[in-house]
Structures are given as C-alpha cells and as structure tokens.
Structure prediction request, 366 residues.
Amino acid sequence: MLEVEKKAKGLIHRLTNETFQFDPRLKEGFFTANYFLKTRKIVMENIPNQKVTMQFFQREDDVMLCGIDEAIALIQCFAENPENLEIEALNDGDMISNGEPVLKITGRYEDFGFLESMIDGILARRSSVATNTYRVLKAANGKAVINMADRQDEYHTQIGDGYSAYVAGLKLDSTDAMGYWWGGKGMGTMPHALIQICGGDILKAADFYLKTYPQEKVTALIDYHNNVVADSLMIARHLKERLNAVRIDTSKSLIDHYFDDKDTSSFDPHGVCKELVFALREALDKENFTYVKIIVSSGFDAKKIQEFENAHVPVDTYGVGTNLVKISVGFTGDLVELNGKSEAKEGRKNVFSSRLEKVKLNKREK
Prediction:
C-alpha cells in the first residue's frame, strides 16, 4: 500500500484502488487512445525495454495542482511492474506555474505509456476544479462558499470534484458524494420544489421543514415569487429566531418586484444584483432581524464575487455551481529522455525542478 504525506494539508492519503475505485477496464485499455495501444504493441514486439522519462506540465500561472494522488494511484494499480518505475511528483494543493513539471515517470515505455491520456485527464479535471475553487474562495475574502455543482455534470464526477474543491479549501458540499474521499457530508436547505408542492406558500414550506427537522433552523429559499424583500420580511416575522438565513437565487432573466416602482436606469437590476442585496439587508435590519444571514447563488464566479466584495455587499455566503467545474487547465505528457539521454520533440525538454519529490511504488500483488 502506498502512502504519501501531504505536507501542505497535514493529511495522509492512502493511495489505493480502495480509495479511488478505478474502473477495471482501465487495465484493458478501454479508456486509452488507440494509438497508445498500438504503440505499446509495436514497442513490445520490436524495440522493448526502452527506458523513457515522461514529464507532465500545463501552461497557466497561478494554478492549484490536484489529481496527483489519484494519478499515482492509477500508476500503482495499472502499470506493469510499478516497483521498477521512478516517480517524482508535486503534491495536491501545490501552486504551479506555466511549464513547471508536476509529475515525472521513468521506466520501460511498455510498462506505463498507455496510461498517459488518463493521467492528463485526471490532472486536468482535478486541477481545474481546485483552481476554480481557489479563485472563488480568494475572491470571497473569507466568507463561506457552498459547492452547488452537483447538477452541473454527470453524477459520477461529484466525488472527484468534491475532493478537488476540498483541496482548495471548500468544505461545504451539497451531496455526500462530494465529501466521500475526505469524510465530508452534504448539507442543504429547501429547494423550489418544496415551496411548489406547498402551493407556493413559503411559510407552510418552512413549517413543514421545522416539523421534520425540529433540531435545525430554517434557511429559506426566498425568490420563488420574485419578491425577495417582501417575502424575506414575511418569513422572518413568522419564524423569528428559528430563521437562520434567506437565500436569493433569482434568475438572470428576471428583475425582482422590489424594483417595480424604482428607477433602475443607473444599474442592471436583473438577477441577484448588488442593489437587491443591499435593500434586503436594510429591510431586515430595520425590523431587528440582524441575525438573519443572506446567501446568494445563481451565476456566481470569482469575478462576480470580487465585484460584490469590492462594493462591500452584505453577503454572508456564496453558492457556486457551474463555475467550479469548468475545465480551465489542460495537461500534457511528453517523453523527454530515452535511455538516459535527452530525446524530445522540438520545443520540449526535461525541465529540472527542485520541488519534485520521489515517490516509491510497491510491487503489486498478483
């Protein structure tokens, strides 16, 4: 079993198939680009035992690396003779820059070369989510962020994406799956569906919530009637101290009814705008509901959060979905040495890095 101490996070990860639960078809090349499979066969039949070094990097600055644990576990589980491979790697959570090597594998090409594209994909996906989350958290300036990306992609992605967001520092997830690799649990409030089933009656929905979960305070989704300020005051008067927070999730295509009789020529009133949040906070405070927190969601990314924070908008928590899981980082694996000598395509070379750490793989049990 392989263990690597994660210095930056103070964690020890047990990097085995037990953790990552890889698809066994990886061994058969089911997910491998066919030309890698053909190359492996050609090498094995004609020029075996060529010792190569494969180097992985990406082309952006200020990127948070993630997926290294998973990539090493993949090699441990599916490479041939993993104990004979020389591995050097950075750590999940490391900040990396353009062209910096994050992983190097040295050994016989036929033992590991067919894993190249899977490693690229793991690093790309995990680092994209970690980097997106890192930038969102940085913009949020210490305020809480909820991972609402469960509906933004095929459900199997939740486990790895949730771990990547955790590496970046996000610990509030929508589903149990998002916390599966690190021990977190999903959290939630009420969806529009509960209000709809109650005939649009927000108070009834809140009462049923408390009846079923009496130990919790209510966080109410408050944009169902597109009248955020009025409905927030209504439910605050009804629940009083049992109301924890209200969440605004107004669509970008709508303008809240609060602005029906107001001049909006100086700003864009669509969706969750700054002016709506300021008005809501003022209205709640005026009636002494200062303890009621404000959560905002719908279309938030690092840029929009930064705009809100620069304007000191009174938001307590941001909910972010789509913009956490967009692929923003791509990785490349290159062969840069052959039998101990430099050999690479034009423009590529074996890049020295003092940050890389040696990782020892174990002989796999048959």
Q: What stands out?
A: The two ends are 14 Å apart (CA to CA).
